Write the structure tokens for this entry.
Amino acid sequence: MDRISSMFEAHPRRSRVDTGRLPAFVLELADCEVTCTLCADACLSEPHVQMLAKCIALNLECADTCAATARTLSRFGFAEPSVTRLQVEACREACGACARECDRHQDMEHCQLCAEMCRRCEQACSRALESMLAGVS
Amino acid sequence: MDRISSMFEAHPRRSRVDTGRLPAFVLELADCEVTCTLCADACLSEPHVQMLAKCIALNLECADTCAATARTLSRFGFAEPSVTRLQVEACREACGACARECDRHQDMEHCQLCAEMCRRCEQACSRALESMLAGVS
Amino acid sequence: MDRISSMFEAHPRRSRVDTGRLPAFVLELADCEVTCTLCADACLSEPHVQMLAKCIALNLECADTCAATARTLSRFGFAEPSVTRLQVEACREACGACARECDRHQDMEHCQLCAEMCRRCEQACSRALESMLAGVS
Amino acid sequence: MDRISSMFEAHPRRSRVDTGRLPAFVLELADCEVTCTLCADACLSEPHVQMLAKCIALNLECADTCAATARTLSRFGFAEPSVTRLQVEACREACGACARECDRHQDMEHCQLCAEMCRRCEQACSRALESMLAGVS
């Protein structure tokens, strides 16, 4: 078991959440934050930054939203389910928007990798929302 | 005109947003982030911190959500309306939850002040959501 | 007395800090974060974004560093003086670097306003560091 | 090669940084942020939260400082070396302070795991600072 899973297991209120999937979701969000921050910075160093302005803006939005969502999910002891659900919904939209824009710049490897990461994170958000609606998480 | 309003006025895409209300909303979110961070830290120094555990958790949640929402609203040049709307909805819920919990600790001035701030911020979120639905913002 | 000053006054460990200057400093950092986030977004919407790539990168750096520093200063109940001092030093450098770069783009009002804000925040960092060395804060 | 390393490799200015160690350092900071956020939340749910107040405060400080430092290191395209160095120094202090406090609560598994994570991150900061002084990074 990885360190983050062990941290979830060691939480006094672990029974409040689905500790099977949540640690992997939080790590995915953390990875997506780093990836989007790197993609924005790489785009700023490209010769054709003009074409990448929207991509940079959506990278930054996705990075900040993933960061906020990872925090919310890591604070499950006294979490308000309505806040968690809306935050994950906002994150799914931000990841989707970033993935679609990065997909338009497939000639740059950082955009290609970032699109893949955002797509995975968008799907992780969708799965988490399904569990919440099913009352599992 | 204050500095933040001038910054909104100086943005090349200022016509995309209602620059009347948005600067004040962003400042309210920034104030609420600081207030909730201070309330959490004050609660941690109280003799009866046990009773304040939920309050601290909701303070932290509200601070991070306000921070993320202020960022989203300050990045309106290429904003995705669906992300903005969901982020403001998450923020309204986080502010409401924090206000309700702080209200239960009226004997501590920091909780009293924090409840007032969160209530104001919750209302600012509601007004912003009404404008968005009305297509103004 | 403004709301943030009242929050500092209501903190059980208010005697640990110079509550005269600290609230204004924290608000200055919060304002600088918003201003730099707005300047980055405005730059991304300018026709000559290529020339502004470094400015955008330093805006983002300054925004995140100001945010982290405001958090550190708002958590003074159990603060480690060495962390606080280094964080304020990092912030002074980030504000100075951003101010110098924004100064090079005086033809854009958002850069002009952002340079002024960063310069003020840089000075506030310097004053805070002097107080810390003098053992006041 | 993992995804984050590939992102560093795909950056147009990759030659500015030591891409051997930097990706692992950024991931360590991201892990430490999540771990500290989880430890703070777990502490808030413990029956003896009173004893853990300082631990919670230092967890929060460490989480925010690691987050800011990961952002700074991921924005290496136009980075100011003085900001990076001071931010990593602040982070090393925050990790060290958190590790020392968590070490005092070895009976709680989350504090034990968090102490280990913070100690690793503190060492990663030290190694990075040595590289910077040696002019490698």
